[in-house]
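Most newcomers find our protein records easier to grasp once they have seen one. Read left to right, the backbone structure tokens trace the chain's path through space. Once this layout is familiar, the rest of the handout is easier to follow. The record below serves as our worked example for the rest of this section:


***
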Amino acid sequence: MKRFLLAALIPFLAACGSGKKGETVKLSPIIEKALNDETSRFYADFSKFPVEKRTLPIGVFDSGTGGLTVLEVMLTIDQIDNITGKPGSDGIPDFAGENFTFMGDMANMPYGNYAAENKNEFFKELVVKDALFLLGNKYWLSAIDKEADGVKQPSKIIVIACNTATAWGLNPIDTLLSESNTGVKVIGVINAGVNALFQSLEKGSAEDSVAVGVLATVGTIASDAYSRTIKEVKAELGYPGGIRVVNHACAGFAEAVDMERDFNDPTATAPRASYRGPEIGETEDDINLGLMRLYNFSFENNALLVSTKEGKITEIQLNSAANYARFHLVNLLEKHRQSGSTVPMQYIILGCTHYPFLLDTLQTALQELRDYTVNGRAIYRELISDSLTFIDPAVFTAIECYNTLRADNNLALRTKEGKVDAYISVPAYGLSADKLDSNGNLSYDYKYGREAGTEELSTVFVPLTGRYLTKENMERLQTLVPNSYRKITENWN
């Protein structure tokens, strides 16, 4: 059954994206400019795009460093025989000899907030601009340069290593590429995550049911992309079992992983006014004081900031990525329990590429939930399958990328080791002080107040160097994505 599911999914997922051939597609302003407006700063002269694409790099982008979990898999995965192209390890990395261009759009993150601020059209435009950077051959040498004088290679395929960007931007990017006539294709992590889910599901009957949790950003959950794609694939495959999807929006989780100061500030010792993470409240997305034993937050190194009055807690601020992970996992399972469903949760999709960095914490917290008792009864145990699996879409994203390149005869097939060029977005030179915060980043109001369709250049892409990463981030990347870290930092010498 599993082999059948994979074979059936490939053509279905490949069909997701632009409209049917011959269908008139309405182009968004940014795509219209990229294709046709030679006076626009965003114009891309695709007539000059290289015809021979095999030696070009694979482009990977994310809102921050979370996409490095996808790049890490692509650098190390060995699930395909490189000679035959059939499934099976051959002792050689599948992407051996490939070059990569990685881009982290950290100046514009968190991506998940654009939907909450009703800026969906601007966000779609932003993601298309990410793709245009990867398709282009220029970059800014430094944050103080007015023009893009650096020269790079365009990408032969684009991998959206971000669930929120996939949810809102996959179709616009697919439209851009289809109209560009470059032959470049785009891969998104959401379809790959759903692919992984159905590959894991055993053949079910109409009476069988399974619960699937989705941990994702506010923007991804708002798009309903996972629920919709699961429903579509289930119908396409004729999968007979019931699938209950439990969505949970993880406000601040990705931002905490990337050490965004409004969500995770290592210098803070007490609750601060700039905090934008979860707070004490009564909704299913708030910090519930009645669940404090379940959260089991760490207080070490000011990981939890608390205010009290007359011996009672009046304010709580999460101040570590691990505490965000614990909080959101507990709230996901509590949401499932409070629904009254008795279907065990079998899978949890990590619907953001930042979340695998905290997989160990999530697994530890899950076991604590299994063991948690009230009056001698383990109230969560029956709702958590003994074989619950966390699904990281990265592996299936890599496989889909490999198969696409091979089918198009665009694999590099080099014997020497490839390289990784990494870039990061920063505020553009000359922005007025009122558009920046005290740290020199885009202010929240400006970042989420921008409008689509303008020629304004508010951020630029520069080489990623150590100056843009905190010590904590550097140590985390070196430990959790060592191959990506090595490849990126070897360019710093």
Remarks:
- Residues 163-180 form the longest helix (18 residues).
- The longest strand covers residues 209-216.
